[in-house]
Structure prediction request, 818 residues.
Amino acid sequence: MISTGEEVLHGDITDTNAAWLSRVLFEHGFSMTRRTTVGDQLDMLAKEIEHCSLTADVVIVNGGLGPTTDDLTAQAAAVAADVGLELSEHWVEEMKAKYAKLSRVMPETNIKQAMLPEGAELLDNPVGTACGFAMHINRAWVFFTPGVPSEFKVMTHGQILPRLAQNYDDVQAKDCHRLYTFGLSESGIGQTLQALKLPEGYELGYRSSLPFIEVKIFCPRGHQEAAHIRQQVITLLGDNIVSFGQPLLEEVADKLVKTDYRLTVCEQMTGGFLVNWLHYSEAVQPRLNHAWVLGEHNIDEQQEPLAAVLAMATAAQENQTHDRQGGSRLILASGTLNEGQVAVALSTPAGTWAQLITTKRRYASRDFRYVVSTVMLDMLRRWLSGKEVIGQYESLQRVGDIYIPANEG
Amino acid sequence: MISTGEEVLHGDITDTNAAWLSRVLFEHGFSMTRRTTVGDQLDMLAKEIEHCSLTADVVIVNGGLGPTTDDLTAQAAAVAADVGLELSEHWVEEMKAKYAKLSRVMPETNIKQAMLPEGAELLDNPVGTACGFAMHINRAWVFFTPGVPSEFKVMTHGQILPRLAQNYDDVQAKDCHRLYTFGLSESGIGQTLQALKLPEGYELGYRSSLPFIEVKIFCPRGHQEAAHIRQQVITLLGDNIVSFGQPLLEEVADKLVKTDYRLTVCEQMTGGFLVNWLHYSEAVQPRLNHAWVLGEHNIDEQQEPLAAVLAMATAAQENQTHDRQGGSRLILASGTLNEGQVAVALSTPAGTWAQLITTKRRYASRDFRYVVSTVMLDMLRRWLSGKEVIGQYESLQRVGDIYIPANEG
Prediction:
């Protein structure tokens, strides 16, 4: 893959297209071997296209198809292929139609976007004015695509992948099963999963994105054995798997909307991290009852953190004033008196669970609030799934825990 | 630059080293022209080093210096330079000393990290066991660096930049003045700043990171004229400049800690985004008095958003129960009854300001909460700076506003 553009080269824009393409190609059975970024210089770009066309089977060039003077990809392609540029009347008509739909006249500058290297095959762009094109240069099949991510993705799925699938019909597309874990280390997971006997064509991948590690099982598309392997991974990693195919928040949301529970959040320690996170789910938002974030001084300094958090949860359970819409109440609370020890609690109609935890490693403040918020959300997931509310997290140390049944509270 | 590693190539890890290096090199007067990522394959990597060594003056190779078998960079360098590997006794002693400090014995596998291409110059790594090295291959000076970002940065500053500065003494390092704007579009800023007459060696750069656009003024290091140009930019962009050289939150934090004000946040609309954001500043945290995030149903549906937010702010101002530590109180509040119109308020001892806004473009829910939180924080910045509290934001539409002096409230 060749990415173009000064802003990408200089790191002002993160090249999300590259990571996305790499993943999509892999899932379709192709493997990206090399990725290059060059700026908006005609000779550099032309040389890069030529260089890649001598070594790769397929080259995907991204960016530089816009109407402005620093968009030089079509010209560079012509140089690399040693051909001229010619006007695609067809694309001019397409662009005029796109502008007409918006009741506007196409600016003259857009004509440039219809100038393609001689002999190039036009690739339709249903969502923009930059058409793509494909051509054979030296040993490679080279595809030229627009830089706007939405346009790039539509073109990859609609134009490029079908052509690759047709031409390389022996390449086997892959399925990817994703499991999200919390509380384990990547090396720990790797060691545990060594016990697996993977069938041919299977591969494991990991992606660490604090505080989760995503385990990916790649297998030939539609393979029967996959469900069996997936179940073995689930058995080996136990209930550190917090969600399947989707992040923890969506997993909790799916379970929560099947109940009539409403959620209250008290975040003395996590400082709004959890309630902000919960707002990312449109399904959870209407279930949020009330949330508050206390300043440090609002926790009773005479109490132990565990007792203080229990008091917070109890107070929230008893405070009905803001709870007009009814429904049973769930409370998640976090509190700390010093940075090291953190108490978290889940209060339900069946009783209240609280635990006191410390970390084994040193986290930045934001990361630590993320980890603690994850423990809270995981307690809720466990309770909604009928599992033990207090989990085992290898990366955290549990100093104490307590359960108070509702009738004793 | 050549980055190595399957995880970077496949997008499982974002290559932050590349963006960072590009920026740092630019500030030192060097310009990155090409960046390539290859996986952990010996032949691919060796070919890439060779290819770059024939075209560039300086090549920086990042990653693949670890102790494991898929770390192949030293071997690839040797292949590219057509030399053998030899043991650096010096680095073995260094590594042994590092382990001894931790009361541990160096594992045998680490010996690999002291195997360098013949004739390479060792680059010290004071913060890890992977030493770097430099060598001349074909026309290029090639530097090999560890992939761990903290180690890479230390080595770049301590070893590579001094060597480059000494060798290319005609290259002029640059200063970079950063200004953060809010409420303007990148094209709008570009047009406004066309009025500037930039002296030779000056350059403007933009970096858009929603909801801010960072304006960068690059100029020759220590240039007197810079302050004058910077002032012109400030005049042209007016009070859409929310901070200088640091993000808005730090700017507000600097002003807030010079007062004895404490801050209360009521986030019906922003859903905890603001209080979570405020927690990113260690200086602001102890100034947070109380914060709450209401569920949708907690705002009085009979009221207009502006009236409802004023009521929230007033209630917060009157509610002294959680305010044990004294100090004057500032309140920031947000509320909405439908997704389109949002009311925000700042209440101070001098009076209360509120405004009702809508957006001109469609934002994702998270982005919109970020934009509204930024308006709130900017109101606070303006008040703390003695400016008009209600700002003009080109990208937002103000539907109404109100000011209620304290003695009338």
